[in-house]
Amino acid sequence: MNTGRDWVYVILQFFLFATYLFDLDFIQLSLPEIFKFIMYPIMILGVFIIVISFFQLGSNLSPFPSPLKHSTLITSGLFKFMRHPIYTGILLIVFSIAIYKASEYKFLISVLLLILFHFKTKYEESKLLSKFPNYKEYRQVTGKFFPKFKGS
Question: Residue-wise over 2-13: b if at least 16 C-beta within 10 A, else e?
Answer without folding.
Answer: eeeebeebbeeb
